[in-house]
Structures are given as structure tokens and as C-alpha cells.
Amino acid sequence: MKDHVHICLSIPPKFAVENVVEYLKGESAISIAKNFRGRLKL
Fold first, then answer.
1. CA separation (Å) from 39 to 21, 23, 26, 36?
2. Distance of CA 19 to the CA centre of its chain
3. pTM of this structure
């Protein structure tokens, strides 16, 4: 897929993996929404 991305991260033990993934997904969703606001995918 064109939009498929792999990321290799080093996360300190004080952060839970699921919290970091949740944060990244949230930030990427906000960024995508800002770039494509009002446009519908058909």
C-alpha cells in the first residue's frame, strides 16, 4: 500500500507502549484532518 509506513522507535521504560502508539495515532489523525479538512474520500 502507498500509505503503509513502518516506524522503529526507542521508548524509555517509563512510557507504556500502548500510550505512545495512542499518542502517535492521535497526532497523525489531527494532522491528516487539518490537511484534508472538508474533503471526502469517494
1. 26, 24, 19, 6
2. 12
3. 0.62
Q: C-alpha angle 35/38/42, rounded to 5°? A: 100
pLDDT tens for the 42 residues of the chain, in order: 677 888 898 999 999 999 999 999 999 888 888 888 766 665
**41 secondary structure, DSSP code:** P
Q: Which helix or strand (DSSP H or E) is residue 4 part of?
A: none
Helix ranges (DSSP H) in the chain: 17-35
Instruction: Tell me, rounded to whole angstroms, the distance of Cα 24 from its chain centroid.
Output: 4
Residues 9 and 17: their CA atoms lie apart, in Å, by 10
